[in-house]
C-alpha cells in the first residue's frame, strides 16, 4: 500500500475508534478524538498541497523534517561542534569573550586542544628574556601631514555596525562601554544617531555610498549637512566606506516596510520609499576624485582625520590609489582594511564565501603598497575581520596594522550568542533586532560594563603577549616573530613566506612581481579589466590572416610563422619567458620631467604640476631601514637570486627561504 494512504488510513481508523470510545465513555476521550481528527485533516491537506513534495509522500510525518531542520544550528553548536572548530567563531573564542565581558578569569586547564602539526597553524615567538608590560596600554596617533586635529586611539576599537542592523539598546550599550574605556566607536554607514551620543565615547563617523545623515533628497552628498555633524565634539574622525569585507562591491536596498520612524530620522530618508545604497559612491569615480573628496571632507570637518575603509580586490586598484595620492599630494590619515572573513547582518552566501581578499593577504598587500611608494609613515593602517583575542591583535600588528577594529566580538560582549539570525529581525538576545519585545531583554547598563571589561582585558592580554615576546611597544614587533607551519616537518616566518618591499621600491625599481600591476595602475581609473580579444564581437568565420602562404588550406599554422601583415608570430611557450612584457616600461620617479605623472596612460586626466619626489631629493632616507615606519617593525631584505610570482597578490617567494637575520 502507498505510504501516504497507509498513514491516512491509520489515522482514520484510530480517530473512528476513539470517537466511538468517547461516545461511550465520555470525558477525556474527546480530547484525544479531537487531536486525531486534527491530524487527519492535516494529513489530507499535506496530500493535496503542491509546495512540499516530502509532505505529499509522507503526510504528517514529513513535518518532523522541518522541525529538526529548524533546531539544527542549536544542536550543532551545543552538542556536536568541538571547542576549536565552530564557525564563524569557535567555542574557545566565544568563551574568552564571555568570560572577559563578565570580568572573569578566561584561563583553561590541561593545555591546547589544537593540532599544532596541522598545516596552516600559526604561533608567536616568545623571548627568553621577557619584560614587564607597561602600566598603561599604548595608543596610536591618527593624523597625517594635513590633519590639524589628530587623535589618539586604542589598539582595539569597535568596528562599524549601524543602528538599524543593531538595536537601539545594543548601540547605546556599546557606546557606553567605549566611553568608559576610552576607545573609538565607529558608527557604521547607517548614520550618526542619538544612540551614538551622550555617553562620552569618541566616534568615527562612517560615510557610505548612501551618505546617510549628510545626503540631499536625491541621495547625493550634501556638504552642508556633513559639515554640521562632522564638527560635533564627539566626532573625532571620518571613515569613507568604499566596500565591506563580507560583501564587497555590493550595494543594498532597505524596503520601505522595514523603515521605522527612528531609522528614517537617523538616515534622513522618507518612510514611504525604498532606501537604496548604491554599490559605488556618486561623489567620486576615480582614485584622483577619491583623494580630492578626502580633501573636501577634511576642510568641512575643520581638519579632523579622514580615512577610507575597503576590502582589497585588485592590487592595481590599490596601486592606483597610491599614484593618486602622490600626484595630488593628498593622503588619507588612515586606511582600514576589511577582510573577506568579516561579518555582516545579511549578505549573499556566494559573496561571503568567495568574493574579496582575506585580511592577511589584503592587509599585507596594502602595507607593502604604502611602503613601496614611500607613504607608509604618513598613513596609519587598521585591520578588521575576526579580531577577538589578544593574540589576534598582535598577529595583525605584525602583519602591518597599527590598530584593529572588532565588530562581532563586541556584539558577543553585548550578549550575542551567535544564533546567526541577524537578518531575520528575530535575534533572541535583542542585539540585532528592531523588535521592541526582544530588544527590551538587553539591559544597557549591564552590557555597557561588559563591553568595557572585554575591551580592557583583551588589550591587556595583547600587551602581556608582547611583553612575553620581550617587547614594551608594538613598534618593536617584526615579521620574524610570527611563524606558520607550511608542511608537517617545517615552519617559516612571515619574513620569509612573503615578499616585503623596501621604502620607495615601487617608485624607483619595481620588482618583477609588482612591475606589471604598477605600470597598469592609473590615478584616473579603477580596475584592471582589459578587453579580451576572443570575446570581442566577431562573426563566427575562419580568419583569413591565418592562411599561411605555401601551405594547404586547412593546415594548422606553425609556431614562429607569421600570422599577420604586421609581423606577429605565434610564440613557442618554451620561449615565452624571453618575450618582453611591455614596450613602454614605467619611468623611474627621478626621471620624470616637469608636468609628467606616474600614470602610464597618457591623455587620461591632467597631470599634476609637481612630479612625484625623486629618491635622491632628500625626502626619504638613504638607508633602506630608516624609512620604515616604527609601527610596522623591521622588514627583511630580499636575497639575490630569489624568484617571485608575476601576479600573486602578495608575491609569495617560490624559491628557497631567504635568510631571517636582523636587517642591518
TrEMBL record:
Keywords: Membrane, Transmembrane, Transmembrane helix
Taxonomic path: Bacteria, Bacillati, Actinomycetota, Actinomycetes, Micrococcales
Species in which this protein is naturally found: Micrococcus luteus
InterPro entries noted in UniProt: Aldolase_TIM (IPR013785), GltB (IPR024188), Glu_synthdom (IPR002932), YerD (IPR027283)
Entry's Gene Ontology molecular function annotations: glutamate synthase activity
CDD domains: GltS_FMN
Record family assignment: Belongs to the glutamate synthase family.
UniProt biased composition (Low complexity): 606-620
A single GO BP: glutamate biosynthetic process
Biased composition (Basic and acidic residues): 632-645, 653-664
Domain Glutamate synthase: 155-471
Name of the protein in its database record: FMN-binding glutamate synthase family protein
Pfam family, one: Glu_synthase
Region Disordered: start-end pairs: 551-570, 577-664
Transmembrane domains' residue ranges: 31-48
Keyword Lipid biosynthesis part of the UniProt annotation: no
Amino acid at each position: 500500500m502507498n505510504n501516504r494512504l497507509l498513514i491516512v488510513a491509520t489515522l482514520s481508523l484510530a480517530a473512528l475508534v476513539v470517537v466511538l470510545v468517547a461516545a461511550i465513555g465520555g470525558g477525556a476521550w474527546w480530547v484525544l478524538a479531537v487531536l486525531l481528527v486534527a491530524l487527519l485533516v492535516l494529513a489530507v491537506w499535506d496530500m493535496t498541497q503542491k509546495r512540499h513534495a516530502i509532505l505529499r509522500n509522507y503526510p504528517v510525518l514529513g513535518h518532523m523534517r522541518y522541525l529538526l531542520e529548524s533546531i539544527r544550528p542549536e544542536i550543532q553548536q551545543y552538542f556536536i561542534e568541538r571547542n576549536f572548530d565552530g564557525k564563524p567563531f569557535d567555542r574557545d573564542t566565544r568563551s574568552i569573550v564571555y568570560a572577559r565581558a563578565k570580568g572573569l578569569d578566561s584561563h583553561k586547564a590541561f593545555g591546547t586542544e589544537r593540532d599544532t602539526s596541522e598545516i596552516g597553524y600559526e604561533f608567536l615567538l616568545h623571548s627568553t628574556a621577557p619584560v614587564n608590560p607597561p602600566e598603561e596600554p599604548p595608543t596610536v596617533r591618527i593624523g597625517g601631514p594635513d590633519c590639524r586635529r589628530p587623535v589618539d586611539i586604542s589598539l582595539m576599537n569597535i568596528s562599524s555596525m549601524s543602528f538599524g542592523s543593531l538595536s537601539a539598546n545594543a548601540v547605546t550599550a556599546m557606546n557606553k562601554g567605549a566611553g568608559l574605556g576610552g576607545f573609538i566607536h565607529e558608527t557604521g554607514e547607517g548614520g550618526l544617531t542619538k544612540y551614538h551620543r551622550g555617553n562620552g565615547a569618541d566616534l568615527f563617523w562612517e560615510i557610505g555610498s548612501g551618505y546617510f545623515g549628510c545626503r540631499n533628497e536625491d541621495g547625493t552628498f550634501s556638504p552642508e549637512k556633513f559639515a554640521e555633524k562632522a564638527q560635533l565634539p564627539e566626532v573625532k574622525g571620518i571613515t569613507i566606506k568604499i566596500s565591506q569585507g563580507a560583501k564587497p562591491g555590493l550595494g543594498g536596498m532597505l524596503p520601505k516596510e522595514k523603515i521605522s520612524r527612528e531609522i528614517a530620522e537617523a538616515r534622513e530618508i522618507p518612510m514611504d520609499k525604498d532606501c537604496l545604497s548604491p554599490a559605488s559612491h556618486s561623489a567620486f569615480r576615480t582614485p584622483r576624485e577619491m583623494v580630492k573628496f578626502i580633501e573636501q571632507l577634511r576642510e568641512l570637518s575643520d581638519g579632523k582625520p579622514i580615512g577610507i575603509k575597503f576590502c582589497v580586490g585588485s592590487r592595481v586598484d590599490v596601486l592606483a590609489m597610491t599614484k593618486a595620492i602622490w600626484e595630488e599630494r593628498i593622503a588619507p590619515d588612515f586606511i582600514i582594511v576589511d577582510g573577506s572573513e568579516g561579518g555582516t547582518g545579511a549578505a549573499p552566501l556566494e559573496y561571503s564565501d568567495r568574493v574579496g581578499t582575506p585580511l592577511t593577504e589584503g592587509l599585507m598587500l596594502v602595507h607593502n603598497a604604502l611602503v613601496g611608494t614611500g607613504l607608509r609613515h604618513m598613513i596609519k593602517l587598521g585591520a578588521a575581520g575576526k579580531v577577538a583575542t589578544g593574540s589576534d591583535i598582535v598577529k595583525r600588528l605584525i602583519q602591518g596594522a597599527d590598530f584593529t577594529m572588532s565588530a562581532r566580538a563586541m556584539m558577543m560582549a553585548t550578549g550575542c550568542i551567535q544564533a546567526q539570525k541577524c537578518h531575520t529581525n528575530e535575534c533572541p538576545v535583542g542585539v540585532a533586532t528592531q523588535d521592541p519585545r526582544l530588544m527590551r531583554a538587553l539591559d544597557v547598563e549591564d552590557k555597557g560594563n561588559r563591553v568595557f571589561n572585554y575591551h580592557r582585558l583583551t588589550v591587556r592580554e595583547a600587551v602581556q603577549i608582547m611583553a612575553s615576546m620581550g617587547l614594551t611597544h608594538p613598534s618593536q614587533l617584526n615579521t620574524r616573530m610570527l611563524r606558520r607551519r607550511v608542511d608537517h616537518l617545517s615552519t617559516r616566518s612571515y619574513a620569509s613566506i612573503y615578499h616585503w618591499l623596501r621604502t620607495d621600491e615601487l617608485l624607483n625599481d619595481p620588482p618583477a612581481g609588482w612591475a606589471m600591476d604598477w605600470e597598469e595602475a592609473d590615478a584616473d581609473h579603477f580596475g584592471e579589466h582589459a578587453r579580451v580579444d576572443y570575446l570581442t564581437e566577431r562573426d563566427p568565420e575562419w580568419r583569413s590572416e591565418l592562411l599561411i602562404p605555401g601551405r594547404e588550406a586547412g593546415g594548422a599554422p606553425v609556431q614562429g610563422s607569421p600570422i599577420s601583415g604586421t609581423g606577429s608570430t605565434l610564440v613557442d611557450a618554451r620561449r615565452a619567458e624571453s618575450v618582453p612584457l611591455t614596450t613602454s616600461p614605467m619611468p623611474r620617479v627621478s626621471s620624470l620631467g616637469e608636468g609628467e605623472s606616474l600614470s602610464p596612460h597618457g591623455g587620461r586626466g591632467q597631470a599634476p604640476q609637481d612630479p612625484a619626489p625623486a629618491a635622491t631629493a632628500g625626502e626619504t632616507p638613504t638607508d633602506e631601514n630608516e624609512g620604515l615606519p616604527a609601527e610596522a617593525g623591521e622588514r627583511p631584505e630580499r636575497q639575490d637570486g630569489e624568484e617571485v610570482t608575476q601576479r600573486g597578490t602578495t608575491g609569495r617567494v617560490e624559491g628557497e627561504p631567504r635568510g631571517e637575520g636582523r636587517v642591518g
